[in-house]
Design brief:
The chain has 3 helices and no strands. It is an all-alpha fold and 73 residues long.
């Protein structure tokens, strides 16, 4: 990340945006907030396309799993 991007990524504007986003889900509705990576979002979307139901978090590894880096000694 470029140093010039730090205020956008970590500054008060993004913090305020995320706070309002999360607090907005507590308005008496049945909506829930899920923060996911792009890989997880693709998996959740593919699971939905295949008719899977339930908590989206249960489908984070539906088709594409996280590949862990090999540890070199």
């Amino acid at each position: 990340m470029m140093p010039r991007d730090e205020p956008v990524m970590f500054g008060s504007s993004i913090q305020d945006f995320l706070r309002e986003l999360v607090e907005g889900t507590g308005n008496g509705t049945d909506y829930r907030m899920h923060f996911v990576t792009m890989r997880e979002m693709v998996n959740i979307a593919l699971a939905a396309c295949d008719g899977r139901q339930g908590n989206p978090g249960e489908h984070r590894d539906y088709r594409f799993r996280l590949v862990e880096a090999a540890v070199r000694i």
